[in-house]
Design goal:
The strands form five sheets. The chain has a six-stranded mixed β-sheet with strand order 6-2-1-10-19-18, with helices on one face. Strands 12, 13, 14, 15 and 16 form a five-stranded antiparallel β-sheet that branches. The N and C termini lie close together (about 10 Å). It has two domains: about 300 residues, FAD/NAD(P)-binding domain (3-Layer(bba) Sandwich), CATH 3.50.50; about 150 residues, Succinate dehydrogenase/fumarate reductase flavoprotein, catalytic domain (Flavocytochrome C3, Chain A, domain 1), CATH 3.90.700.10. A hairpin with a 5-residue loop joins strand 7 and strand 8. The protein has about 475 residues and is an alpha/beta fold. The radius of gyration is 23 Å and the shape is globular. The protein is built from 14 helices and 20 strands. Bound molecules: flavin-adenine dinucleotide (FAD). The site of flavin-adenine dinucleotide has 41 residues, from helix 1, strand 2, strand 7 and helix 14. Irreversibly catalyzes the reduction of fumarate to succinate. It catalyses: succinate + NAD(+) = fumarate + NADH + H(+).
């Protein structure tokens, strides 16, 4: 029997991108999503998506694929350096594919899907401004996901079933993946059903799986708050049918999750987007001193926060750090600031009003404005001050401040894929009929993902996975995939 559809597991950016590629070739798609609402973590993305070179980058634009490649390799660090042979080649191919197709990914979103990506910020670990978002009021994750959802929902070849949790991948005797088993609740009963067809898995990472995969691979992170709601990782489902996993111990602890004064010990926190630092924001300790180049890689900033703030009292596993913006940085981030102030996470105040609460802030700001006006070099090596405009620090100088602490955020590890998004087994062989894209996959980012490169991997490898699954489906004519 010829399968009637390709199955896409997960309705985040990777799944939606693969779906658009499939529908573009008039191939039916069944999307299975475990939650009642689509969008996954993709819909929460707040800083943007990387691409180089693009027409939206500041002019003159000296950014290049080579520069983006070098930044990604530097950020990936030890796992890439230590790899050898076929594993090294595989990792290098993934990085080359990511950065080489980044410009095309931006134009696919902007030109073909009509998404505004005209604002560009420089995030940590990047040597150029290359993280794109829109100029309007919508955060980038919401804008991208809602636009793509709008594209697919009207298509007669597309069917999305929410509240469906995929629990098993089905495999034929020959080894080919032939479909999935999934569960859902109907009239208070758990129903188990099967769907048949080639499968693209785009079910995201495990940074929200505190009691499961995180506890297993990184027990030392227990108790550190997270930006991710509880959701169990799906890598084990693929391992059950022989897929290999890699880098599972590499978990990104993002430096800045907001501490909400109404619920300071909340286990799930709202992310303070990296764009806040990229557009000019600085980090100061509880007493007001700066202590790090805020545009260093995330792992470096997080480490500095945990080290520097040691001498201050911590609550549970949280650290006492303030994020401070001036009016210039705030103006570049109106959409973000509106949301964060509405939530009570950032407040507008003056340097004078903060004098008692953060005693050394005035001095730290005076030192920093000398860096901004290029009177001195930044002692921490910061090169770009974004849109910071404050040049004279007075008691009445207006600033925006919020408390932040490191948060578990993203998992670099996951199932092993090649540059064709094929899922590989322990011998490095593709498992026929199975592709994966997005945060479920591992090895691309090594020990540290650059901000903006996750949305990018969803688009780049989601498109590849969709095209590969389409070609496979079209070549299936006459083959028997399902036994029922
Ligand atoms: C607050 C926040 C801000 C971020 N900001 C940025 C940013 O600005 N730029 C950037 O590049 N990255 C950012 N990231 C990271 C990025 O958003 C994610 O890594 C990326 O969106 C993952 O996309 P995905 O499609 O792989 O998975 P998701 O978007 O997480 O989608 C996976 C979907 O699969 C579903 N699913 C899981 N298991 C099953 C199952 N068994 N059966 C059926 N469905 C299942 C989930 O419910 C989910 O809807 C941010 C992350 C967070 C949490």
């Amino acid at each position: 029997m010829i399968p009637s559809t390709v199955i896409v597991v997960g309705s985040g950016l990777a799944g939606l991108t693969a779906t658009i590629q499939l529908l573009g070739q008039r191939i039916p798609v069944l999307m299975l999503e475990r939650f009642s609402h689509p969008g996954g973590n993709s819909i929460k993305a707040s800083s943007g998506i990387n691409g180089a070179p693009t027409p939206f980058q500041p002019i003159p634009n000296s950014d290049s694929v080579a520069a983006f490649h070098d930044d990604t390799v530097t950020s990936a660090g030890a796992p890439l350096v230590a790899a050898s042979g076929a594993e090294k080649t595989r990792r290098q191919n993934l990085i080359e594919t990511l950065v080489g197709q980044s410009s095309g990914a931006i134009s696919w979103l902007a030109d073909e899907q009509g998404i505004d990506l005209s604002r560009v910020a420089q995030l940590g670990g990047h040597s150029f401004a290359r993280t794109h978002r829109g100029a309007g009021k919508k955060p980038p994750g919401y804008d991208i996901v809602s636009t793509l959802l709008g594209r697919v929902t009207g298509d007669e070849l597309f069917r999305m079933e929410t509240g469906r949790r995929v629990t098993k991948l089905l495999r034929e005797a020959g080894g080919q993946v032939s479909g999935v088993e999934y569960t859902y609740v109907r009239d208070n009963e758990t129903v188990v059903e099967k769907a048949y067809g080639p499968v693209v898995v785009a079910s995201g990472g495990f940074a929200g799986d505190a009691r499961g995969l995180l506890a297993r691979y990184r027990p030392d992170l227990a108790g550190i708050p997270s930006t991710n709601d509880h959701r169990e990782g799906t890598q084990p489902l693929l391992q059950e049918i022989g897929a290999a996993v890699v880098d599972m111990e590499h978990v990104q602890v993002h430096p800045t999750g907001f501490v909400d004064s109404k619920d300071p010990e909340a286990a799930v926190k709202i992310l303070a987007a990296e764009a806040l630092r990229g557009e000019g924001g600085i980090l100061v300790r509880g007493d007001g001193r700066r202590f790090v180049n805020e545009l260093e890689k995330r792992e470096t900033v997080t480490h500095a926060m945990m080290e520097q703030a040691k001498e201050f009292p911590t609550t549970a596993r949280q650290w006492d750090v303030n994020l401070v913006l001036d009016e210039g940085a705030a103006a570049a981030l109106q959409m973000h600031l509106g949301f964060y102030t509405m939530k009570g996470l950032i407040r507008q105040t003056t340097v004078g009003e903060l004098a008692e609460e953060i005693p050394l802030l005035h001095g730290a700001l005076r030192e920093y404005v000398d860096v901004v006006s290029e009177k001195t070099k930044d002692p921490f090596g910061r090169q770009s001050c974004g849109h910071w405009t404050l040049t004279e620090v007075l008691p009445e100088s207006r600033v925006y401040v919020g408390k932040v602490t490191p948060v578990v955020h993203f998992t670099m590890g996951g199932v092993v894929i090649n540059e064709r998004s094929q899922v590989l087994d322990g011998q490095g062989q593709p498992i026929p009929g199975l592709w994966a894209a997005g945060e479920i996959t591992g090895g691309l980012h090594g020990q540290n993902r650059l901000g903006g490169s996750s949305l990018l991997e969803c688009v780049v490898f989601g498109r590849i996975a969709g095209d590969e699954a389409a070609a496979f489906y079209q070549g299936l004519d006459g083959q028997c995939l399902a036994s029922s």
